[in-house]
Amino acid sequence: MKKLIAFCLCICMAVCCFTSCNNNTLSNETTSSKPINNNLPEKNYLVGGDHDEILVSCIGQADENGVYVIPETISMISEGAFMGDTSLKEVVIGPNVKIIGSGAFQYCTSLKKVTLSEGLEIIGSHAFASCERLTEIVLPSTVDTINECAFSYCVSLKTISLEHIRRIGEAAFINCTALENIQFSSKLEKIENWVFSECSALKNISFDGVTELREIGDYVFSGCSMLRSVEIPEGVNRIGIYAFYNCTRLADISIPSSVAMVDFGALNYTRWYHQQDDAYLIVGDGVLIKTTVHPSELDLSGKGIKAIGARAFYNAAIANEPKNYGYSYATELKSITIPEGVREIGKSAFEGCFALEDIVLNKDLISIDQTAFNIMVEGIDTKAKVNFNDCKNLEYIGSYAFQGCKGLETVNLPQSIKTVGEYAFSSTGAYTNFMEKASKSENEADRYWISNGVLLAAYVAEGQTAIHVPEGVKIISGAVFCGWDSAYIPDDLTGLSAAGVTKYNISYHVKELYLPEGLEIIEDRAFYRLDSVKKVVLPSSLRVIGASAFGLCSSLSDISGGTGLEEVREAAFSYNTSLKQFKFSPNVKTIGASIFEGCTALKTVYFPENLETPGIMLFDSTCTSLNQVYFNEAVRPRIYFVLGSLSHEVHVDYYNQ
Predict the structure, then answer these.
(1) Which residues contact 475 (CB under 8 A, 6 or more apart)?
(2) Which of the four pLDDT bands, split at 50, 70 and 90, describes residue 264?
(3) CA distance 592 to 541
(4) Which uninterrupted H or E stretch holds 2?
(5) C-alpha span between 171 and 193 (Å, rounded)
(6) Do 580 and 477 belong together in one domain?
(7) If pLDDT is split at 50, 70 and 90, which confidence band does 465 have?
(8) Which domain holds residue 288?
(9) Number of helices and strands (H, E) in the chain?
(10) Are residues 281 and 389 located together in one domain of the fold?
(11) Which position has the higher pLDDT, 46 or 478?
(12) Are 49 and 76 in contact (CB under 8 A)?
């Protein structure tokens, strides 16, 4: 956990270095004017844009008192314009400035006072990050969004008005260790992940009047050790992963009836959680998050339960965690019947309950989240049978959902299914049966395990150089062709790499990949580490490419097609070290984080012209060949957080709007 927090803190502080000083467009690229000349007596600054209205660089231009007043002609303070200016103590920003760019005042460690005027519309990502002496700031009513990391690591910031703020971006106030009170706007709609994480002085947060908020994001208040009470507003339907984790003084928390899921570890290490000793602790809209009942008396029926919360029956002992952060009797639980009315089973709800023999699911289930029934424990022979023949409305099965349920002999997915995560059925009887039959058959059709249009697993024969995904497959589930398939251990280890001696490794043989028309979804890590594949043509029917779906495909240099593509999830093409250029389909509406992480040969990327909010940290410091990227102009205020931890100059062009 501590490693994860440290990693995410580092991500939030990452800054990229690039050339975007000009008001660039594809149709008319302008050049900067009025270059800095320190020999001139008057103050000098670098401007750009068609009418010199963009303040490009202004380092070292404050007066003898450290004060700088933004010229009236300026409408935008560009990316990094004052970055690292340690002489700047006060800045006055007049009403003509509409945009403060990404990283504009980052690392201005002497900056104590900022005056903002009505008319300002956008504060970019990292805009005031690491301004260590900034104690307060008043946001004008014309600003309704705080972008990612905008005030991160402002360790002296005690007060800030959020009166008009509708959306707060990722890690916006992370590690603001002096911040004590927060009053949210009644207009608040979104609090993204990590926003107030490690704000160790935060005592009071008020959601009074908030009606539009639907989710408390992951890690939002984690580590807020002074927080004592919180009343989550009605309308919120999800409390995210580790949302209040390690809020050690939090003794009073009000969860409204609208909450439909309390996610993994959301309330762990809070005083409130310790104090709850109900036989069945049910919160929100029927979310069971904890029980103290022995398996011999356990009965979930008739209690209005609509969701089994994350970790509700988790075997904490297998992870050497305190028992009260799971189900104390997890090792004794032999059977479970999910009652009617339960629509969702949360992450790791029954993980590690290795004694389970019978699992009976109901007709109302829509979602079974990742590792929900992952009972695979090293050295223990598990037997669990799973009956989900009545699950006619099931849409989502997460990664490793049924791993180790060896009594699960057949899988008949309903037509309603939309997602099957990686290794969802690994080490089950059904998976073992398929692999044994496929490995002995010479019929290629026997090498694909398909249920109602979902490809659940595949067997790639020794020396096979091409994969032909069969016609009729609409969904390729997670990790089906993953180069290292940890779900299957072959008897013959000949030809396996040193790292794969206990794994089924197909990564060094397959050179050709054929995908059929009609395929709609490629799930996470589906083709991960297929080292030898050089070219992929995506069908026009494809809508979704999952996380790391083509990750570590080191020979892949040509990706084309996919005109119907709408969503590309995080790290989809990460570590494709042969890929030199990429152009997204114009229909893509969602791009996840770290898409091109580790793509060392990548030179040029064309992002969709209409995409205004791509994911974060799209590249990293290993992308040393990258020299040109194209974005929608709306991305500009977030560009530091979008590009990622690049350590060299990259030219950014914005499509002409």
Answers:
(1) 417, 418, 419, 420, 453, 454, 455, 519, 520, 521, 523
(2) very high
(3) 20
(4) helix 2-13
(5) 6
(6) yes
(7) confident
(8) 276-408
(9) 4, 47
(10) yes
(11) 478
(12) yes
